[in-house]
Description:
Mean pLDDT: 82
CATH class of the largest domain: Mainly Alpha
Low-confidence stretches: 1-37, 318-335
Distance between the termini: 35 Å
Strand content: 5-15%
Radius of gyration: 22 Å
Shape: globular
Order of helices and strands: EHHHHHHHHHHHHEHHEHEHHE
Strand order of the largest sheet: 1-2-3
Helix content: 40-55%
Largest sheet: 3 strands, antiparallel
Structural class: mainly alpha
CATH architecture of the largest domain: Orthogonal Bundle
Amino acid sequence: MIILLRNLFIIVLLSFQLCACAALSSATPKKAFSYSSFNKPRHNDKAIESPDMWYRLRESFSWDIPSENPLVVMHRNQLVNKVNYFPVLTQQAQDYIYHVVESLEARNMPVELALLPAIESAYNPFAYSRSHASGLWQFIPSTGKIYGLAQNEEYDGRRDAIASTQAALNLLQYLHNRFNGDWYLALAAYNFGATNVEKAIAKNIQLGKPTDYWSLPLPEETRHYVPKLLALVDIIRTPDSYGLNLPKFRNEPTIAVLTMNGPFSLAQAAQLADVPLERFRRLNAGYTQSISPRKGPFQLILPIANTESFQQKYAQLQLNPPNIADQPVVAAADTSKAHRVQQGETLWGIAHRYQVDVNRLAAWNNITANSPLQQGQTLNLFTDQ
């Protein structure tokens, strides 16, 4: 059954919201910290119905941005001067951001948070950090498990755009409640850990210092984390002020979610849907092998434009779900696999081993040919070996 992201997500998202509220109700609010003031999210029909996603975002923004803050200024200048930053971000976010915005609005959360994956992963579901964080929202393994993201040899929920978004919003809602409605502190805790932020607050209380985000003794990464997000929000809010003409960005769902009751070959499903395997793998990044896990049901994410054709071909071939994984891969060149990086390996060496171009290998994993690799990092390959 196809779930179109605009019409039916609200029902699904509200069920997630109820689960989140149950978790939040068990969390006892901490001491009354001083915090920045935030306006309530404003979601209007004009913004929702606009054909442009950038317009929808800026019309829904509700935070007062400290645009003259030195750290915000620094990161804003870096983003404005970064070549191709917004074209690349637009391309990578186009399949996901509509769902993220809809999810935020269903929970009455600030739409500014839709830009958090841009800061965390550049909206790349395959993004992987030195701390073993993975996916759009960069969950580390332990936090991912706490928030219901399964991780095994066949599936990593942290890389599943739909599942990880709901988990991230559950976590952000919890942190927002824990820090008494201060989104800056909640975001600091998302990056640094709630307990660590509370320790920084306690230290400032002992010293008689303010306990807002800007005053806390936080590590460098966390001190820059919120300003990076605010800088991006500020640019999108008034791009003309910074001499930018943002790329076209459609405000419409581009993907649909199908329910599959049995395992399937990713390469064959991609062929039936007439979707290039690289894009198919990106949409279904949660699956870490060439076939889905054998126990279902499963979610299959496809471009909306390809779902009807996929269903017709699926029915014509009479492929019942339990047998999909047994079908031969249709083209050896489309075979996909994952390579776990070993100590001392380089991207050039791995490319030579699999006889693929190093630049293509880098592009498949949204890195550069000279990017350092981390032991245990997973690289996606599309090769006939």
